[in-house]
């Protein structure tokens, strides 16, 4: 008997990619039984595009921006089936993504799986840089119990979400996926699986500003010191200085001037963003 699968997508201002993302779900070789859009109070045409250009999509609109942790909990809560899949609003799936993950989730004591996401727009050198230093996959080999699963493409059994009381809603922009897997590992004895044959692609097309903010959010909000402080600014600045020199040397060896420039701009912007964040909280 075919198992019923729910699919949700958290989205904020995703008008450029949301149609392609949902269409890739609708084109799966194994079709889900429901697709839910969680719109996080977008100010663009995300909802309008879904309403007018796509069909059979359940749309939930937040009255204010709530963040990723909240949206993931809402998506799973509103799903009517025990197996719940999710992708980010800037991700497109290979046709066989679900077909590759469903057999894994059906194995004994496996309660969550994720696939391999690669960057799609590699003509942009900034995206190439991001793919090198901030890839969202664990490579080409199947892994049981990887350090965590990237939230951009996952499938889970709802009961494990209930058992660990869901995602941390204080984590609004990133880190919620790492925290969620940490809770599963600490509070349960279930297995998670990374299956690289389940392929998907990232449609994000960054510039220096958006890349720098992405890197800053990843490190600042995922750091052990959560609240902004001078101590946190200094520690993160030292850490980013180390990263910059490592990347500088890698690029220098390859005579990659573009890579050096990108690394330097990201480094400078990171410190700027953390400084601004510190002063806003004062």
Largest sheet: 9 strands, mixed
How many β-strand stretches?
9
Radius of gyration: 19 Å
What structural category do the secondary elements indicate? alpha/beta
Helix segment tally: 10
Report the β-strand fraction as a percent range: 15-25%
Q: Catalogue the unreliable spans.
A: none
What shape does the CA trace take?
A: globular
What's the helical proportion of residues?
Answer: 40-55%
Distance between the termini: 58 Å
Element order: H for helix, E for strand: EHEHEHEEHEHEEHHEHHH
Please characterize this protein's 3D structure:
- It is built from ten helices and nine strands.
- With 282 residues, the protein is an alpha/beta fold.
- Strands 1, 2, 3, 4, 5, 6, 7, 8 and 9 form a nine-stranded mixed sheet that branches.
- Helix 2 links the parallel strand 2 (34-39) and strand 3.
- The chain starts with a strand and ends with a helix.
């Amino acid at each position: 008997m075919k198992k019923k699968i729910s699919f949700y997508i958290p989205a904020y201002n995703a008008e450029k990619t949301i149609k392609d993302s949902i269409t890739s779900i609708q084109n799966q070789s194994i079709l889900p039984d429901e697709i839910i859009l969680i719109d996080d109070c977008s100010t663009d045409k995300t909802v309008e595009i879904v309403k007018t250009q796509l069909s059979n999509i359940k749309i939930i609109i937040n009255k204010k921006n709530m963040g990723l942790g909240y949206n993931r909990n809402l998506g799973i809560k509103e799903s009517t089936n025990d197996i719940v899949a999710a992708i980010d609003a800037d991700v497109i799936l290979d046709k066989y993504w679900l077909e590759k993950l469903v057999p894994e989730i059906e194995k004994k004591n496996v309660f969550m799986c994720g696939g391999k996401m690669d960057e799609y727009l590699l003509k942009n050198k900034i995206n190439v840089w991001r793919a090198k230093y901030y890839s969202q996959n664990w490579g080409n080999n199947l892994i049981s119990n990887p350090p965590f699963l990237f939230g951009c493409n996952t499938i889970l059994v709802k009961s494990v979400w209930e058992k660990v009381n869901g995602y941390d809603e204080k984590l609004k922009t990133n880190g919620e996926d790492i925290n969620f897997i940490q809770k599963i590992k600490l509070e349960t004895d279930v297995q998670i699986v990374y299956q690289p044959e389940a392929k998907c692609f990232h449609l994000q097309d960054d510039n220096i500003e958006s890349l720098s903010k992405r890197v800053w959010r990843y490190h600042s909000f995922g750091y052990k010191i959560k609240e902004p402080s001078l101590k946190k600014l200094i520690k993160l600045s030292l850490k980013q200085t180390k990263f910059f020199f490592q990347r500088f040397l890698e690029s220098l060896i390859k005579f990659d001037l573009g890579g050096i420039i990108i690394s330097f701009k990201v480094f400078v912007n990171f410190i700027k963003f953390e400084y601004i964040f510190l002063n806003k909280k004062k």
